[in-house]
Design brief:
64% helix; globular
Amino acid sequence: MIDFSYAQENIHKYKFDYHGYLVIVDQIRTTEILSSCNYLAMKNHLNDLKKKYRNELSYIAKFEKQDNTIFKNHKNKIVNELKYISKCLPVIGFMILGKGKEIGIDYQMISTKI
């Protein structure tokens, strides 16, 4: 079981590590884009995050049973996906830093390329 709350509370410990810093920046940027209500920016940011963290998100999806409900409004789907990825970013940070065991997953990065 992945401990999302522990990851969220403790990601700040790794803000001085370059990869930890990048994850924190992505989380802040995601929050800003969600609050801007700019649909095109949300869509572009979502695509960028999915591309950047493809391996980590697929690994998390194995443990999480993400609700794949089809929304009538495409904008709601994008907003919900961004919120989900924002929730996963601290966990991704721990995975990238090789600290996955602290949050309950055994994940070895094949590549540390971001």
